[in-house]
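User: I'm curious whether this sequence folds into something compact or stays loose and floppy. Could you predict its structure so I can see for myself?
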Amino acid sequence: MSEQLVAAEPQRNRTVVVGASLAAASMLMMFAGMVAVYVSIRQNNEHLIEKGVGGSVWFPDLTIQIAPGTMMLFTAMMSLFTMAWAVQAIRNDDRRNAYVAMGLTMLLGAAIINQVAFAIGDFGVPVDRSTPALLLYALYGAFVAALGMAIVGVLLMMLRAIAGQYDSRNSDGIQAAAIFWYAVILVYPVIWYLITITK
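Assistant: Here's the prediction. I'll summarize afterward.
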């Protein structure tokens, strides 16, 4: 009597990366919609001012300082390099550098959230006083929420790497966390330009 061996299920490679890419794309679409609403309302306000039939000053002078937003931008750009370092380190089985890079990435993410909290406290514009203030807080709030999710994703992948699940043969989870991180961080230059520079 011969026993029939059942073949193992084929391994589905890259499913985590595909899932993270879809999550990043949906998050980018959400921000694209929010930015479109912000720009549309601001343009409509400027049109009303030009026609002399209404509108108001979008933000009073010195409401938004350039320095805090620019520091957030530089901190965000640094985190792109540390996340790339983490992916490269895990691909080379350099676990120590991978842990350091992921830790630095999360630290830079927390620093960005701290800088956002400082900038919001420095604005001095109550959220319920005007449409521009509401849009400002909505954009920054959505960015902080997305960045918080990205930090949690990096933390979970770091814990799984510490447990030994990721190495040079299987680094999909860390690549997935990196894809989402890149998408979140690349949203900030748009917010920075719209709010800090063009006001």
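Summary: The CA atoms of residues 70 and 192 lie 7 Å apart. The chain has a mean pLDDT of 89.
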